[in-house]
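Lab notebook, design round three. We kept the backbone fixed and only want residue identities now. Task for the bench partner: fill in a sequence for the structure below.
Input structure tokens:
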């Protein structure tokens, strides 16, 4: 029952996230509609100014403008209808799942009360609940396997290290914490794989052939390529004060999950953008900067293409601002191509918050000249795509593209170990967490980078030093 409630909670989280994303899309379409109304009003004023003396050129220009306005109206209406349909679907699913979750919760409480006879132990557990702990954590802590796992952590006071495999029922929350902490994990193409192995992937889709109705059908080839995945270990250890360990199971589980998620999510984001392939995945910027096939380019992959000039750029001069700035930026970022074998794609752009604010300030200056403001609410202005803030990126740097063309391989198994020895004098226990990942961009053409200064985009960042193995 606990597992089903957990799954429902995950579904509700996903639906609410989709609803938030949809709200951004709806707001963007509303902006388009407002701009369209202004354009329509200007056209109505222009129509009123047409007279019998108006030239043929003036009438032709008005007719062309009217046709464009009509086509734009159809496109915006289609977006409005699609968003409304998606919103209806989400709003229909959420109440049904909430009702099912409430029923499961009620049945679970009734069964627990009947089995225990409402013992004093249950009352004690209720008083020990922390108000900041989520219902998902509280529910999962009722599972016997999780209680045993947390009990071992709390009870182990020996100097010798102890290693635990996180219970299967607890793993979804741990992975969910990593997903919440990572800004980029939700944008990339992720596969869970057990052990080292080879992943077969389709290359770009072939083109079907037009022929006469009674003509023979042409054969096309499905081209596959392979990625040999080895999996690099992502790990960290943190200290948790012993007084926290004496608190409730819920508090302890929440601390473990939060620490695991933040440590691994941050490391993953760095690797997805700047990993060098040495004991870590290959990053998007690393691929963009490569001018020749590097050592990590495998023999079964498609022919290497150099995109370091076409898909990477910088401002031509520090004096470039406003419309000129956006023209130069769009020339490079717009080079990111959506591949047919990747479906609709998930367009995203990573940058520091200060970089996005610089873009917004340029839009404000354009708006003062009479243009339409776009790109609010964490959307890339003009080009489109979700904006993600990453504080480890250099100022003025923008990196991104179609995340569906980045293959991230998640190895099965997240492990944690603990020891009292390392932090004995600090009255704390050290927790160590590990996970394994691999990955690389499948098509360099699907990504791009740009610098809002005359300095080229940084091709690397500093990763946390591996001092333990120095």
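Proposed sequence:
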């Amino acid at each position: 029952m606990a597992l089903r409630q957990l799954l429902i909670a995950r579904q509700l989280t996903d639906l609410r996230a989709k609803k938030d994303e949809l709200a951004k899309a709806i707001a963007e379409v509303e902006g388009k509609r407002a701009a369209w109304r202004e354009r329509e009003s200007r056209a109505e004023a222009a129509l009123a100014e047409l007279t019998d003396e108006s030239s043929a050129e003036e009438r032709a220009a008005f007719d062309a403008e009217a046709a464009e306005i009509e086509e734009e109206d159809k496109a915006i209406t289609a977006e409005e209808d699609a968003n409304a349909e998606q919103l209806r679907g989400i709003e229909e699913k959420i109440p049904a799942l909430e009702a099912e979750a409430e029923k499961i919760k009620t049945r679970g409480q009734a069964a627990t009360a009947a089995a225990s006879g409402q013992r004093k132990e249950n009352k004690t557990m209720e008083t020990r609940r922390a108000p900041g702990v989520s219902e998902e954590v509280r529910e999962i802590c009722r599972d016997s396997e999780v209680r045993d796992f947390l009990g071992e952590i709390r009870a182990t006071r020996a100097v010798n290290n102890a290693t635990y495999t996180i219970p299967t029922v607890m793993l979804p929350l741990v992975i969910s914490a990593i997903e919440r902490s990572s800004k980029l994990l939700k944008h990339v193409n992720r596969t869970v794989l057990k052990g080292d192995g080879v992943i077969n992937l389709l290359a770009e889709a072939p083109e079907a052939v037009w022929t006469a109705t009674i003509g023979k059908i042409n054969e096309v080839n499905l081209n596959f390529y392979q990625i040999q995945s080895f999996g690099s270990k992502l790990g960290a250890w943190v200290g948790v004060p012993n007084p926290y360990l004496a608190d409730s199971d819920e508090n302890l589980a929440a601390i473990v999950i939060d620490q695991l998620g933040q440590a691994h999510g941050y490391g993953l984001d760095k690797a997805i953008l700047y990993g060098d392939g040495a004991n870590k995945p290959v990053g998007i910027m690393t691929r963009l900067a490569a001018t020749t096939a590097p050592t990590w380019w495998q023999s079964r992959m498609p022919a290497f293409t150099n995109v370091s000039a076409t898909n990477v750029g910088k401002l031509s001069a520090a004096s470039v601002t406003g419309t000129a700035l956006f023209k130069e930026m769009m020339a490079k970022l717009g080079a990111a191509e959506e591949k047919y074998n990747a479906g609709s794609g998930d367009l995203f752009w990573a940058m520091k918050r200060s970089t996005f604010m610089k873009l917004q300030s340029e839009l404000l200056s354009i708006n003062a000249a009479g243009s339409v403001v776009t790109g609010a609410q964490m959307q890339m202005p003009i080009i489109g795509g979700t904006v993600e803030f990453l504080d480890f990126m250099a100022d003025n740097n923008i990196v991104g593209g179609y995340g569906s063309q980045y293959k991230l391989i998640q190895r099965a198994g997240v492990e944690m170990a603990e020891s009292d020895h390392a932090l004995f004098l600090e009255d704390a226990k050290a927790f160590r967490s590990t996970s394994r990942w691999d990955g690389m961009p499948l098509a360099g053409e699907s990504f791009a980078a740009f610098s809002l200064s005359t300095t080229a985009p940084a091709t690397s960042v500093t990763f946390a030093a591996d001092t333990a193995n120095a």
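Keep this in mind before ordering anything: The longest helix spans residues 56-116.
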